[in-house]
Amino acid sequence: MTIRANFETPYYTLLNDTAYRLVKDITLYPDAETARTDITITVRTDNGLLYFEPVHITGLPATAPYTISDLQQYTAHSLAGALSEKCSTLVTIEATAGETVIAVLRQEVWIHPLDSFPGIRAAKFLARYITPHHPYVYDIKRKTAANLQQYGFHPAFDGYQSGDRQRVSDIIATLFYTLKDEQWVYSALPPGYEKEGQRIRMIDQVQRQRFGNCIDLSLVICACLEAMDLHPLLILIPGHAFVGCWLSNKRLDVPVTSYKSEIVNRMGKGNEEILVWEATAACAGHSDSFKEAVAAAERLIIGDKAFQLALDIRTSRLSGIIPFAHMQEQETSATLLLEKEDSREEFLTLNTLPPLDTGTSHNIPPASRQQVWERKLLDLTLRNSLLNLRLSNNAIQFVNVNFSRLLEALTAGKAFTLINTDALDICLEKRRMIDTLHETDGLSRYAAAEMEQHRLVSAYSAADLQDVLTHIMRNNLLAIDETGANSLYLTLGALKWYDPKTPETCRIAPLIMVPADLKRQSALSRFTLRLREEDIQVNTTLIAFLVQEFNLDLSGLMTLSEDNESIDINRVFNTIRNAILPYKSWEVDELLFLSNFHFSTQVLWQDIRQNMPFLLQHPVIRSFVSQQYEADESLQLPEHTDTTNFETTEHIFPIDADSSQAEAIIAANMGKSFVLHGPPGTGKSQTITNIIANFLFHGKTVLFVAAKKAALDVVHKRLYDIGLDKFTLELHSNKSRKQQVLEHLESSLQQSKVLQDEAFLKAARNTAASRNEIEHIQKAMHQKQAAGLSVYELIEALTGTAAGQELKYHFPPELLLGLHARQLEQWMQYIRALADDPVFNTDYTTHPLAGLHTIHYYTGLEAFIAGIEPRQIQEIKNTLYNINDSFNNEQFNNISKIAGLVDISRVIRDNPAIPVKLMDPEFRYLYDDYVHLINLINSKQNIEKEIISKSDINIINLDTKTLSQEYKQALSQWFIPRFFNKSRIRKQLKPFIHPSLSDTGISELLEAANQYKNIQINLDNKHNKLLFNNIQKLTTKEHALDELAAYKTIITELQDLAAGTGISSFIASRANELPSRADITDIFPPATWQALQLLEQQWNGLQPLLLQLDKTFVWSTPTRDLDDVAGAVTLLQQHIHRLHAWSSFRALLQQGNDLGLQKYLQYAAAQQIKGDRLETDFRNSLYAELLQFYIRGNALLRNFRGLNTEKLMEAYRLLQQNFTEYTKREVYTRLLQRLPDTQYAQVDHSELTVLQRAIKSKGRGISIRQLLQRTSNIMPRLSPCMLMSPISVAQYLDIGLPKFDLVIFDEASQLPTAEAVSAMARGRQVIIAGDPRQMPPTSFFTTRKTEEEYTDLEDMESILDDTLSIQVPSRYLLRHYRSAHESLITFSNRSFYNNSLFTFPSADDRTSRVQLIPVEGFYDKGRTRQNPAEAAAVVQEVLRRLRTPGLRHTTMGIVTFSQPQQSLIEDLLDQAFAQYPELEDAARQLEAPVFIKNLENVQGDERDVILFSVGYGPDQAGRVSMNFGPLNRDGGWRRLNVAITRARKEMLVFSTLQPEMIDLDKTASRGVAALKGFLEYAAGRSGYREQANQGQDRLVWEIGAFLASQQYEVVYDTGRSHFRIAIAVVHPGQPERFILGIIPDNRNYYDSGNVNDRIIILPAVLRHLGWNLLHISAMDWHYHKQELQEHLLRHLAALLQAVEAPLPAALPPEAYIFSPDNLQEAAVDTAFLATSFKRKVYETATLSGMQQSGADAMLAAANREIVKNQLLRITTQEAPLNLGVLLKKIAGLWHITRTGSRIERYIHELIRELGIPVTTFSGETFVWKGGYTGTAPEYYRTMPDQEKRQVTDLCPEEIFLCLHEALQHHIRLEKAQAFRYLQKTLMNTRYNAACNDYIEQAIETANHTAQTLFIASDHYKLN
Fold first, then answer.
1. How far apart are CA 149 and CA 291, in angstroms?
2. pTM for this one?
3. Assuming Cys at both sites, which of 1426, 1624, 1669, 1775 could form a disulfide with 1771, CB separation 3.0 to 4.6 Å?
């Protein structure tokens, strides 16, 4: 048998009494002898330090090894305690069977003494050295108790029972000072425990020797703390140990933690849970206070200091680690020094704060459009610096300072200069992060001292600091421009966290975001930092990330505070520290950064997350979510909008608007939502301004939203220009400073109200009348008349003919009156065809076929004519000759008669059975008799059948009539007579009837027999017998009646044919002659019938020929007989070759007749007008007649003279100009009238009061959001228009505020849908303005993260694209005004807008203002991605222009194709300005600053001159890559389109890249192709100088030809879009310019828009572009050509003689200019104050008391009239008046102190006599002035000082009027506010709640009639 064992070597005695064993396990390997025996295993050591329990084994297995692993081990404590050094021992293991030893194993093992600690791997066993029950610990504890009493604390060790952290801290501090008295001496003890183990001084040694190192002393302190019932911590860092202690009854989850964050996160200021301090600070020679000891320990653990572990003693005890047993008694001092000096020690004061409420998280369903929007708004990827901040050119770290003091200084408005550490000779590498410094660190103290001087310190070099801050500033300005929100934040504190995917990398996430402004005065000055007046916020992105990814519930931190002053930084830090405790390696660190963050969209995210149900109330948003168009009335636009004839006072235009703009404005006024397409320079901002003005004019509210500040600035400037700036509140994030907002509101509130007058309405009427007159004139010129031609078109067509020349042919007026366009076209086509006809151009009256009127020609007609056989006609004539004899020589040569004979023969042949007698002419009159006869025969036969069925037919021979009567009589008799009489009659009938026949049957039989005999009598009369003979055969047929009816039809046809052929008498004679049995075939003699049969056969052969001839030929003299036919055939066969030509000619003549031109054709024939002359003569004659006809029919045209019209247009221009100014004034005055009156601010807590107080306190204690919420009803009157960014909408406008009537989005192509929906939901109606061909949203500030589950729900690029995708209707602005030269827009118009923009040529149109400037240089592709040569060239051009006097005032912008090139130009320009500061000053004096931007962010900006730097180009090796950055992307062409449309006057393109270097075979990018085209265009190689061909307008051509004949060079159709200058006259001395533009009133001019377009806008635009213009009237040219030609030449001569352009004409004296300032001054001058129109002071009627006194005197009849007069005077002065008050006043005049019922009845009687109106309310009676009809009073009364009224003295009408006026200013009042105000105003008393019921009831009663208030349960509001 063999024994093997595993030993713990070396063995540490410290670890005894634990699972730690010297012998880990023993394995026995039995052999055959030892198998299945009983064995005992014993283990012993030779020194007896350890001993073991024997192990007994019964039946050891035979073969398998047997392992013992649970050996029981014991320690000899006395020996272990005496062990002072490491020693070896021999371990013996024996196996015995009975008394026999069968196996032995011996092993030498090293054993360490108790004070030898094995190292970090056994860290938890350090707790064994902590012996809280050691006598020395009790000694220290007693001393500490004495010190507690000395220091004024309760001398008790109550642990955590008080729950007071400060109490625990005081105990710990007292212990610290107690230990200092122990005079410990620090003494190191090698070696370091962290390597080979550490010798620990036991507590006895420390007590005896007073020596100890950091761990020795820390263990003793831990024992003291544990003895005081506190929970100590032992903290180990490399080479050092110190002490910690829990301040509350808490502990770690595990005994040992290696995560520093578990300690650090619980040390936060204000929320300290753990206190750490330096143990060695208690040693002799250290003068540190307890605070300093704490600071020393904190300094060792904060930041990135190395950390090993922390040992929680309490948790260790719970896990079974117990202290060593005390083994040696030591003497301890029993003397307690209770008498001490006054406390010299410094204790630690804790500021304990509860953590913030973290709230509850908000969950939304997955895979929804809402979630897509949220993910877009909140980037939760590690690319977001809010989650993963890295030092870069966009982020810099400053040395951490006291955050609270820093924030205090910033909120006080202090500016901090940003400096570096040159003074300390410290310079860190760029992007290297500084660890958190303790406040005692030297650099930290330096930073703290500098902060007191308002300087923040960075460890960067001066150059690096300037470089990084420059980048940060530029990026912030870019963000403000692009998103409308500040992106620059100073961040306080950071979370150090670890991503599970990359656990080795520490991530930094900022915590508190302080909005900042970074500025410098010049390129050489230092940067300064200020607090921006925005809310300080927690990093919401981080909070959302922690909630979503780590399930930490911190949603309550989303809103930190709305008052910056109340931010508690430590409280926030500690709340986060508590939340992240489950993540051991995470910690909150107090780091300080400055960086740009895309943080602002978090408010949008929060808005959508919290308010989605409100957002879905908007139909457009619902359509987005459902991804389908939702039908809504607001989304239905009319197909056409009349922009000429509209209600002038309904749709206003304070800025001149063209027709396309007017359409959009009118659509907006109609309440429609739509997309407004606004390509560059098309007046989008002025259209928006007009829309805003219209809504404000109608008392509505508008929210204008644009992300880019530039867009808001443009609209704000335009609103300022029209006087509406005071009613417009700009809350774009960049300008949302509370002070400015309040100052703006105050200035709005202080405006004086101005009375409205009739000037606006009068101007509106006059302008509309003048506009309509001009429109009617111009419309009359171009309106298509019935003939499809306008007057202008007629004049143009007649150009070249002498006006008024005598016409030889006059068209009948009735023909002109009915002439329509289709008919005119037919006329002209006909005339052209006739003029080309060969027969027409001969003497067609002598033509052989002149008798042939019409030929219906067809192919094969000639063959048909040639094939006709004349013998066919002759054969028929021969047959007819034989027939004539039968009909008394009647001649049948006539074709119609022959046809009749043939038809008679056919009918008789087809119907041979007709009785001949029916051919009698009388048959048609006897037809009814025949029918009657047949009916009688049928009835007789039916009755006969009935009789036979019941009896013998011979019964009819009886007297059946008598029998029938008798039988009926018998049946009515009583029984006996009835029996006998019936029997008698039956007996007579017995031979004939069936025996079983009933009584009824007998009656019916006898009746039938009677009928039968009556019919037979009728048939036997003579007439019926004659008729019967004629149709005897027919009566035997079953359907005789049907056949008779058929016979009637046939006989009628035969008789009609006979009459037509003339043989009626013959037919009648034959019918009479023939017998009755004869048939109709017998009517003709056999020979005649045979001849007729032959004729029918011959005629059937000839008839098709005759029909074809009749169908084909129409003769002037018709062919009526066979001879005519024979002659016609002969003629046709002789001239068969002329048929076709004659057919065509005759058809043309007939067509002319059909068209009504017969008389003109006769005139043309008479005048021998042939060929080409025909068309010219016809057109000139007709057009001249039409022109005169239309002019005569229109009164405006009848009296037209161009000069008069020019005067009319000039008058209209002045009217319109004045009306525009009056419109501005009207809008302004209407808004003034709606302003609340500040005198009403006295209502406590009303909205107006809140606003006034906020203004006075400068917003102290109230944020902008709160202010808007608390003034939600009056704000729409103060600022009915708000200009905001999408972010500021969510930031400042609560979703519960009243909705705006209209929301307008500008630059919508750059606004993502997710960022727009919040603002959209704030309004009822929405207009989305933008251009889908311009920039999509900038990608700099957004994430492109898309998850597969959201693919189908993804938004399109922008809100503009999304609205178009759901079919929101559109309005289009297509007139371009921005460019001062058409060349600046031409390329974009052609390349991107399909030339649909309406652009205008300039007077120097022959040259281009777009130039390509080649640059020698290269693109540094591989390194900097910059083009230095281009950048230098651009900067030099900027400097040149600033130096040149003639150029320095033009504004400039620089556009690059990439960010690196932009940065390079910015740096070079900064350097240049540093070198030439005078040029920097010149740049600052420009109207707009020089901007430097790239393709991604230039949209919305414009300047006079744009300098391009392409940047891309050949590299140093000359190679050109086809990668052009953003241009290669999808939609890159849109970026190019934006960039090349920014210039107003000139565009210079600096490029090392030439167009031929771009190889389009290597790229399919549309953007790159567009770039090549643009470079070619700029180089002058494509397109701009191409002019249009000469127009087709004959009048224009004639004017041009005249000028050419006068040696002037003219160019037709100048321009490159739909609008052209018809004739441009080249300046003789300056061929590159035009001296005159001639605009005729042609269709191009008329189609240029409405009256305003043509009369005002178009001339103004063209004159602005340098044109001299002359308007020429077509009617003047036509009727007064020579006079007009002379005028034209004089005008040109005057222009040539002018040396300089004339000065603008002075405004005529009748011109009006609106100025809000002047209006306000006038209001003050006239002392027009904003006072109440409905308030007056109560005036008491003044009456003298009566000399008589008493009731009797008053009631005396003699005094009756006196009392009545008194009543009238009082009521006239004081009504409405309570009757009780009236009684008192009357009684007082008569010195009566009390009024009784007698006096009351008397006064009532007098009131009735006087007819004084009386009303009652709530038991009170009120008297009124005479004439009162129930309407509200004109005013309410306030009481004079010291006078009061009772509430019952007030009638409901007066209370209601006072409240109503107050609500006109407050809009809404809480009922409590209203009651206080009414009592104070009307009663002049203190508030009395008892009056409220009366007042409330009075208001409800009055409103029941007025219906002008909305009364809720708690407030009043105007309806």
1. 20
2. 0.70
3. 1775
